[in-house]
Amino acid sequence: MQKRQTKRHIGRGSRKFRNWNLELSESARNTVLGIANSIDSREDFAFSYLRESYLSKYCDESLVPGAERKQNAIDKWIETELRNAHTNDWWRSVDPGYNLLPRVSVSSFLRHCRRLIRDVLGPLHDEVVLGSFSGGASTSRSRTVSHPANKFSGKADITEEAKCVIDLVERLSPMLREHESFSHPNIVKGNVLFTVPKKTDIDRCACKEPDINMYLQKGVGSHIRRRLRKYGINLNDQSVNRRLAELGSRDQSLATLDLSSASDSMTVEVIRTLLPADWFAYLDCIRSHNTLVGDRYFRLEMFSSMGNGFTFELESLLFWAIGKSVLYFEGISGVLSVYGDDIIAPTGAFDLLTFVLGKFGFLPNYNKSFSTGFFRESCGGHYHMGEDVTPFYLKRMPTRLTDLIRAANQLRMWSLSRDPYRQYIDPALYRLWLELANHVPKDLWGGYDYSVDTQLVSPPIQRISNVLIRVSDSQEVDEVGRYLHWHNSNWNRTDLPETEGREPISTNQKCRKRRTKPGAPVCSELFQKELGATGFLD
What we know:
The protein is α+β, with helices and mostly antiparallel strands. Helices cover 40% and strands 14% of the residues. It is globular.
């Protein structure tokens, strides 16, 4: 008996791995690519909006070489820095009596704005230095070895300006004193620029920060995030802005404002002007003052970039304070909500708010800002006359089964959301979904979660349903670092989303199959064609 078990075990171990994330046929690829063209051409806003949007973020690497897209992104980054230099010069020399608003001088506006920011930040206390490591790439570690636990052991990078803070960190958390990351860090000049795919003609720039700088920055980011909640701004919840955008699309009472390159447009002099002196000094100490672009360092006119651990929270604070000040001086009542550079304000304040933000160096993205008509967009939610018309996108060439499943699930969710009562759904939408679904093996039908790409959301058509499970090469995690990461997370209680601008890695395309658990939820939203099918409603 023992021998038979051993033999069976050896047989399993020697079985060749089969990747169930199958390559798509040319027909399947064309079906996914052609979704927009297959959508009914009826005169309906949601339908036409999807047709326009589906490929708007598509990155076709065969049209523009990667090196050209990267250079276009770098050229835009340098152009933003030239504009930042102009903003810094303006704020160094501006006349305090200059009217930033009608009959409101710069000095009066700044006095009100500073008071709001000071109240949110509160006093600068020692514990703000206790941050956390992110799972993103840093100047010393690539994305493939960037587990937060690993950053507590081995060499870590820090800028010269931030070295003075290490003694305080070690005094507050003595366990860190014994480990090389904090006791013997490597001095670097600044952060490192990288790019990620954005659109066919241009990439998006972000920066990898030195390890310990990021640790300190995330401490500040967590502090600002917590403090903003006391003033009604919850940076853990995008649904607030989406609800307000829906309201604005109904009655035009609220405008949605999006800014262009907002993260890269916070300049040194604007931050110096608006923040309390001690807070500016600390943030200036832990930020990167230089960015490596290729083989050349640039001295920064911007204060922080996408990738810095406090950029998102700091820009949210600035836009909230500037917006509140505009409403105060203009006597405009109404809701103001911010989530990064997604700003919602009373429609009557739109023009003056965009003017004032421009003086602080921020440019509106008018393609994504709406103050007239019945369309509003914020935090990924798109609304027209109160109707959710949020489209879905194809961002790259579909090559694997998971790409097709993602498209089919998004199409199903979008189709059924058009009419929850199933009375007027165009039968062509079901036929299009079915055309996609027929490329999926039947044992992968029966899912219920629209957000996954590993199981098709549909009524089950077999007694046994499977789900794809990605097989990844797990990072080796240093055990001492794992303990320090756990200790640090519990000490600081920072269970917050990771900083935007992480350097991504390519999606692991290897998958195995696993049976779904008995009693798992089933698909409850059905096309009309599915309603009468035997067993679908059991």
